[in-house]
Amino acid sequence: MKRHPALIPLSHDHHQCLIIANKLCQDPIGYKPNLQEIQDRLVFLKSKKPELLSHFKIEEELLFNFVLENENSFKKSVDELREEHKHIADLLDSISDDDNLEQDLNEFGNALEKHIRKEERIFFQEVQKKLDEQKLSVLSKNIFSSFITNCNLKF
């Protein structure tokens, strides 16, 4: 299903999130990153923290609240996605430069990727199916105005 324009800014952010996840945990089979590479990944991740949290805030305050106001059937999905946001934010806060850094970065990257795939493949598809064009148009205006005033993920 083609992505509705109302959700495209969030999908663009999701693409950037997948790049982040990939940089954190995807090494060729048999490749063992050295300590400096692992520490560089931590610095990279910490530099993306404000944008990640801003993205979560936009989804929670605009998208999730909007769909709940317009369609009760989203309650379970929204609750799960909010819990995943909290889990990912908690993982981000807990990562430190210690003996478990490589494992922590992998865990964070895998959690972020799984979450993004769920939003894109399941939640966004349902939003597009269940909300009519008029509601999606209102959502689009809200999201675009938020992206004008907030930073989205950039490299």
Spell out the key features of this protein.
elongated, 5 helices, 155 residues, single chain, Four Helix Bundle (Hemerythrin (Met), subunit A), mainly alpha
SSE layout and pairing:
Blueprint: H1 8-25, H2 35-70, H3 75-94, H4 101-130, H5 133-149
Helix pairs in contact: 1-2, 1-4, 2-3, 2-4, 2-5, 3-4
Question: How would you sum up this structure, described in words?
Answer:
The protein has 155 residues and is mainly α. The chain has one domain: Four Helix Bundle (Hemerythrin (Met), subunit A). Helix content is 78%, strand content 0%. Helix 1 packs antiparallel against helix 4, helix 2 packs across helix 5 and helix 3 packs antiparallel against helix 4. It is elongated and about 55 Å long. The two termini are 28 Å apart. The relative contact order is 0.21. The model has no long low-confidence stretch (mean pLDDT 90).
